[in-house]
Write a structure and sequence with these properties.
There is one protein chain. Helices cover 41% and strands 20% of the residues. It is an alpha/beta fold. The longest helix has 23 residues, at 93-115.
């Protein structure tokens, strides 16, 4: 089967939205993992007419191999460990503790930036859709899901354009529903499935979030009370 190559993150988000639109969702809210996931999430939320917010999680990098994830940490401080990878590269506990603190500092920086735009969305009793522009190891998504689950959504959905098949099996254990547009066996990097995959800047992510937040507030003001 031929691999699907998306034009950009927005196209991928639109296709996810079309897939999810057939579901019965309870006051849906889309939570995007920054930064690239915000572009996917913005398009997805627009198709669904859903609220858009962010959920913050950061990859824990292997020593001397920053592209290799040995786990991830969520904005509430919860940590997801890739134990097999940690053992393989022999990660020391002292180094891991330092990396966790480093990533929590970056989460705090981003949290201040995004919360200056909008307050955190209320998640209890809602259909929460967590999205990113793709899954590689799945560590950041798993850390995000741990954080979101504690806020008691009525349904926790993972929606991603592309992921390796083995990671999907793991993700299914941590959510109520999983929507993935493709899971090709020949998977090397998320970027291989996009024509345009430039790094999304903080400024652009904030712009997308602010645009949706203003639209959400305007719609709420127009709704009959």
């Amino acid at each position: 089967m031929n691999e699907r190559i998306f034009r950009d993150r927005a196209e991928a988000g639109q296709e996810l939205g079309a897939r999810l639109k057939t579901l019965a969702l309870e006051r849906p809210v889309v939570l995007a993992i920054p930064r690239g996931g915000v572009a996917t999430g913005a398009a997805l939320a627009e198709v669904l007419g859903a609220e858009l917010d962010v959920v913050l999680s950061r990859k824990l990098r292997a020593p001397l191999q920053p592209e290799l994830a040995v786990g991830a940490v969520g904005e509430d401080g919860s940590v997801y460990h890739e134990r097999s990878t940690q053992n393989l590269v022999q990660v020391k506990e002292s180094w891991l503790a330092q990396e966790i603190q480093h990533q929590l500092q970056e989460i705090a920086r981003r949290k201040a930036m995004f919360r200056a735009i909008r307050p955190a969305a209320e998640l209890k009793g809602r259909s929460v859709i967590v999205t990113d522009d793709g899954i590689a190891t799945g560590s950041t998504m798993l850390a995000a899901l741990q954080t979101v689950r504690l806020q008691q959504p009525v349904e926790l959905i993972v929606a991603v354009p592309v992921a390796p098949p083995d990671r999907l099996e793991l993700l299914r254990q941590h959510c109520d529903r999983l929507v993935c547009l493709q899971a090709p066996p020949a998977f090397y990097a998320v970027g291989q499935f996009y024509h345009s995959f430039d790094q999304l800047s903080d400024e652009k992510a904030c712009e997308l979030l602010e645009r949706h937040w203003l639209a959400t507030k305007q719609l709420a003001a127009q709704s009959p009370r």
